[in-house]
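Most newcomers find our protein records easier to grasp once they have seen one. Each record describes a single protein and holds just a pair of labelled lines. A learned vocabulary of local backbone shapes supplies the integers on the structure line. Nothing more is needed to start thinking about how sequence determines fold. The record below serves as our worked example for the rest of this section.
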Amino acid sequence: MDYEAIIIGGGPGGYVAAIRMGQLGLKTALVEKERVGGVCLNRGCIPTKALYAATGLIERAGKAGDFGIDFPQPKIDLPRLIAWKDGIVARLVTGVEKLLAANGVTLIKAEAEPLGSGKVSLSSGDEITGERIVLALGSAPVEIPGFSFSDPIVWSSTDALNPDSIPEQLVVIGGGVIGLELATIYSRLGTAVTVLELMDEILPGLDIDRRAIARVKAGLKAAGSDIRTGTAAAGYEKDGEVAVVKTKEGERFRADRILLAVGRRPNSAGLAELGIELDRRGFVMVDENLATSVPGIYAIGDLTPGPMLAHKASAEGVKLAARFAKEDYPLDYDKIPQAIFTSPELASVGLSEKRAKEEGYEIL
């Protein structure tokens, strides 16, 4: 075998696993078709938080008058703002590459296809072998009927982080974490934002106390965003350069851009053909050791059931490295922290009050 472990996918699960395996003395290869860091570093968490921090200055300046300090209306130099954000991302990518090299990890820039029996085919035409294959393939944004990312007027989160102009009107379809964080950023930039959420409340599916959710909603509304829950987007039509978003309830909202942020799906296409068991949503089924149904193949991060969080993927990468080195690294999935960068920000860890009561705990 060429390697003791081959990791396919260089996101926060894959590169953390590779670094830790290198530290533990395992001969490791990390295969990544684009830049290391995955969605989180290049097109997700990091650029979002960079823009959130930058636009926070606008919000603070707007409130400074309460203290007797007045600023003129800020001027947004969008190319400079995006270049600053991209510079942060580039520095972090370089840092990850240096960490991989410093820990003896072989970084291979190519697409990879697991073939079974420890073999991996590379887009370069080469083939490598490993005692263990780790799938860290991540996830991709979901489309819904009536909305396609092939139309430039429909944004994915990646598009929203790399705009060529600031839209006057933005309709965000999906009131989850991604949609609300980007709604916060664009509202600060002066965009009129409307959020359409199918469920009866924003941040659906998250185990967060309703009082905290109410604070987030109030903050969004105070900043000028129009929050519509229990509202289903049905499609859109063009009116010149502007889209008119139609809902099943009969409402219509004009938008220069439509941000589709209804969730993400695991990049698991083709894995079933290898004999890897998937659930009905396409997630890879793993056991307590993160092993798939195919011996010698493991999966971590967004490919597996559970919250799609970078630090969850990283923790699973460390756990897997420990197992390969015959060490123990227990994980408690009930204690995964999460943070939402709206205004106000929201963070939580452990059980919500509602869930704690349901599980029989006494609330003090």
Remarks:
- The chain is about 30% helix and 25% strand.
- The longest strand covers residues 127-135.
